[in-house]
Design goal:
The chain is mainly alpha-helical. It is built from 1 helix and no strands. The longest helix has 39 residues.
């Protein structure tokens, strides 16, 4: 039972970390495209 609870908690933390990395990557791509678009215009 304790193993199941621990597995669920670790899974939730991993999911949260993955979501943060994906969000950070998307924001980074937006920043890069904004930078290059500003440089062109």
């Amino acid at each position: 039972m304790l193993f199941m609870i621990r597995t669920v908690i670790i899974g939730l933390f991993s999911l949260a970390a993955l979501n943060l990395f994906v969000f950070q990557g998307i924001e980074f791509m937006h920043a890069m495209t904004d930078l290059f678009n500003r440089k062109d215009s």
